[in-house]
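Give me structure tokens for this 171-residue protein.
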Amino acid sequence: MRQILVFAAIVVLGGVYVARLADRTFDSPPPEADAAPSAARLADAASDGRTLTVAADRYGHFEIAARVDGRHVDFMVDSGASLVTLRATDAAVIGIRPSPRDYTATVVTANGKIKAAPTRLDRIEVGGITVFDVPALILPDEVLSQNLLGVSFLSRLRRYEYADGRLVLEQ
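Here you go.
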């Protein structure tokens, strides 16, 4: 089962990387557009306890400010990513610093094969939603431009759906 999840993550991350590279190459936003603070992203989100509604950004992506093991981490929701995936620097912020020998999973991207470190996150909180014991991968920063909130989180919700340019997460 673990091999299937790792293979699925490899395929998804490769596609995500290529799509992001194309976005940056063909439609680069002004630098100030990417520097929006998390509070601005939350201004487009509404939460009523265990339901969170998030508006898409101008590219159709859903960016969410979350807390992972009590620390702030920004994510892009990616229902095509099998696992929650963290950049190494963000993993370090929450206290996860894998050694080189911990990078045991292989992820295939547009730049070739990349080693990833499997881990489990004790808790991810988004609005009033909390999910415990979430499988995740840690990738080097140069491979992943943004943390991904993948299916290892989303599948633990009662529902998640896209409608009218909004993403609804419900626990």
